[in-house]
Write a structure and sequence with these properties.
Radius of gyration: 22 Å
Order of helices and strands: HHHHHHHHHHHHHHHHHHEEHHHHH
Distance between the termini: 10 Å
Helix content: 55-70%
Oligomer: single chain
Strand order of the largest sheet: 1-2
Strand content: under 5%
Number of strands: 2
Number of domains: 1
Mean pLDDT: 89
Largest sheet: 2 strands, antiparallel
Amino acid sequence: MTALGVDVGAALNLIGALLRYLSLAFLVPAVLALGYDEPVWPFAVSGVITAAAGVGLGAMTHGRERIGPREGFLIVALVWLLIPAFGALPFLLDEPQLSNPMDAFFEAVSGFTATGATVLTDIDALPKAMAMWRQLTHWLGGMGIIVLAVAVLPRLRIGGRQLLESELAGPQEVERLGATIRETARRLWVLYIGLTVVAILALASLGWSGADPAMNLYEGVAHAWSALALGGFSTKNLSLAAFQPITQWVILGFIVLAGINFLRLYRVIVQRHASLVARDEELRLYLTFLVVGSALVLIEVLAGGFLSGAEAVRSSIFQAVSIMTTTGFATSDYTRWGALALMTLLVLMFIGTSAGSTGGSIKVVRHLLVWKLIRRELTQTVHREEVLPIRLSGAVVDERALRSVVIFFPIYMGLFALGAVLLAIDARRSHLALGAFDAIGAAAACLGNIGPAFGFAGPFGSYEPFSDLSTGVLTGLMWLGRLEIIPVAVLLSRRYWRA
């Protein structure tokens, strides 16, 4: 290890610490299992195994605690493989629908990456504690376990910035909310927890007031966790269609909020810098995409007679917002809608949320910067001597950030295309009835961490028909999408490993 330019031991030491923290999370479903008179042992055993692995890694790498920028890439890549592997243990131990290790791992990766794709065919049959563990994986992965590590571990003073920038998706450097990166991470988690508490109270109050008899404290917690993480897991087979319209509107509001850059949200909500909203070009474009996408879907839904009245408005807006924000909740089976609606939803899959949010996909800011680059190129084609720096919300964007955006697009689209082709090839091999549009949708939904796609993998469907090979491909796409590809590409470079 010492001959390498990367301290693998230090990376594993930190991962051991994260596993020890993860072991504590199993207490939540364990307590619920006691309350609902369900088996506790799957969560107890999972917690013990996870803690033992964390302690073992810590003992093997004792003294190797210095994390630098290089180690950050390795940590981020490994964490999003190992955390779901241990998070899948309760599924493997005591859930018949997830007895296949590949299915259990897929479900856990989908949970922690806040994707929301599922191989379950009967979510209603899940025990209460197991269903809540599934929701909790969303919430832990939404803001990010690594952001939590930066917030609580004092050792992450040198490599903390690299870890935080790798975790908070987007092409630009993370702006500080406090004197240190650690303080920034802490404030992000405080905001995340605060918004979650507000969402829980808002949803639970709908049940307490009688506005939605299907909503209670348990459902409020479960769906608040999923909404703020922009994940999309639900405790119901019918997703949010199982709840009243008022509940859908409330959740919609929190989804839109969670799709905004959390650094910006903190400055507006906590520090009360409301003027930032008017100057934020990314936020304006994010809201514009949501409005235009919703309008296009609504036009098709009304023109095609698929829904009418208030239901058409609500479902059209909700599905457009849910897909673009990579949440994946469903209020209607959009696979039955017309071509314009389906194509609009597919395009929205490639837009995503704001950088620094809990959502996935390409991100609005990258689309904005590419548009600015195109405009600059067109201008400089005519006026060759003119120097035109790219500005975002008034600030000059570093050329390195612009290069990363230009590089990101072809890599992302190439992986999407490769994933869709592999799914189509394997479908032919396994005699699975998978249409071209369905393969494209599944690849886009998993790489963009969106969840539901089209066909049998639609909003009320399941990814269960895919073979283990295709499930592995889709799992890999979710992992790459959560990492935003670049950290993995860096690991594949020889220069990264050289001393």
